Amino acid sequence: MRLKITQxxxxxxxxxxxLGMWYIYPQSSNRxxxxxxxxxxxxxxxxxxIIKRLTNAELDYVxxxxxxxxxxxxxxxxxxxxxxxxxxxxxxVKDRESIFYKGPSWIQMDFEGRILQSxxxxxxxxxxxxxxxxxxxxxxxxxxxxxxxxxxxxxxRNHFNWNLLNPFQIHDLLDARHKPKCYWNGTAYLRMKMxxxxxxxxxxxxxxxDGYKFEAKLFEVPTTFxxxxxxxxxxxxxxxxxxxxxxxxxxxx
Length: 253
Fold this sequence. Notes:
About 10% of the residues lie in helices and about 40% in strands. The protein has one helix spanning about 5-25; strands at about 45, 50-55, 60-65, 75-80, 85-95, 100-110, 115-120, 130-135, 150-160, 180-195, 195-210, 210, 215-220, 230-235, 245-250. The strands form 3 sheets. Strands 3, 4, 5, 6, 7 and 8 form a 6-stranded antiparallel sheet that branches. Strands 1-2-15-14-13 form a 5-stranded antiparallel sheet, with no helix packed on it. The protein has a 4-stranded antiparallel sheet with strand order 9-10-11-12, with no helix packed on it.
């Protein structure tokens, strides 16, 4: 018996509704293989690597041109002695008229997480250090690349951003400051490939048009300053209210 146009239309509508419900309603549970994942701040050791959270502050990356470098890239500045790093911190500053504004200052931090000094914005760290460049290059990054240094192995959807379905939100698209749309708040389960092993951890974040809301960077400390493999890893824009964001030291014991 042939299906009538009305029946075909209803059948297509039914499948469209099922697909819509699958997309906008949360997943009921985690996959079993990812239940053991923890926040990076909760991991002390993974394989041969020790993980130390230096600070829960978000790193403001150093524009290299500030210290005379010819390439303007975001980086971490390693002190000439190789025993600490410098980064820019944006703090609220109060002027004589009691008006608050944001002013940058240089923060020097050692590999134990201790703040050694803070320089005013008109002073700069000593020259002769090394700019550590990000090894990940997240911009344009393929999060599903199984051969990548850092990839999202699985994303669990928790809460849908229902504001996306609001037709009156279209004015946001005309705003020059418009940010990528966030569709789901959820949990991203990540795998980071190290030279000798892997580190598995999770991040509370949102998926967007460009991938995910959180940002990550990985900097390698030259072997001339470290006997063993040493990395500086940073996490920003996570949704866990400070549970895992910050600066980490990862090194091979």
